[in-house]
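U., I forgot to send this yesterday:
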Amino acid sequence: MTDIQGPDDIKLLIDSFYFAVRKDELLGPIFQQKIPGDWAPHLQVMYSFWNSVLFASGGYRGNPFMKHAGMPIYSQHFERWIVLFHQTIDGLFAGSVADDAKQKAVKMSLLFQYKLNDIRAGGTTPLF
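Result:
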């Protein structure tokens, strides 16, 4: 197995990951509700996002947290998301960038959960 090396690998990762997400009993319905039709625009955004996260490409413009702020997602959803993301990476890649992707996904998950929990508790977490 090789490491994640660029945009083609990101595309493979994202396509494979979201294939698993759409089949998942817990995550599939949530994503289907949010993206009921054409997945291509969402996947394009995810390619750009992960290229920016892993390779500092600067191509992603947006606020990922805001896209999730109103969704009915809780710790069990994030836990499943991480499991599927790690399984997808481990099935396709091995190396320092693959390890970095897994670590960054965990950090994002924890940050999103913190912000969502704070907002739901009436806190003052900014939505960025």
